[in-house]
Amino acid sequence: MTDNDPLKRGSKTLDNGLQVLEVLGDSPNGLTTTELSERLSLHRTVTDRLVRTLEHHGFCRRTQEKRIVLGNGLVALANRVQQDLRGTARPILEDLAEELQVTTHLAVQETEDTVRALIVIPPRHSRIHVGFREGQVDPIDRGSAGLAIMSMREKQPGERDEVDTVRERGYAVTKGEVTPSVTGISAPVPYRNEPGLLSVGISVFEATDEAHLATAVVAAADALGRELLR
Hints:
By secondary structure, this protein is α+β, with helices and mostly antiparallel strands. It has nine helices and eight strands. Strand 6 and strand 7 (about 185-190) form a beta hairpin. It is elongated and about 55 Å long.
């Protein structure tokens, strides 16, 4: 049994069920039971049993075309995650999105090597903006959100030189590292507590005035840090 074996980590059935949700999350048009079985390398009967259990809890559903998609039960569940943090951060991100007319986001360190987009706010009145889903997980050493978070940690062997630059100027800028042709500007949130290290950032197709954008992002990150310390 290897270290990656789900039986060694815990419940194999639960592991399979979570993999169903992960695969469906990457399949916006849904999958048939057969397609899902093939993706997971599971017997069709086992897959069908997993899907029926998840359906019972509202975590997935079947369309009229008999394709399996994620269910609305996940939305309610996700909204309960870090409610206090979400409630505090959302108006700050909304104000930043409207001020700059860009997509804003709050990222949290998920593991030692990854960050998760906990909140994503598009501008309400912009005809064109960058779009990506809440919950997206990316490598911590790729993209401005991860570099901003890394800047709050002790310097580590092999880390990118850009992290020191973030420590010096207070924000990170990357281009095309997570999404092609998209520039990210993120600042660390000066707050150290649960749920972990945080960054506030924006995603734009073109950063015509990087200094102005960065100043606004840093101000928003500082404002969130002050609110969280209250």
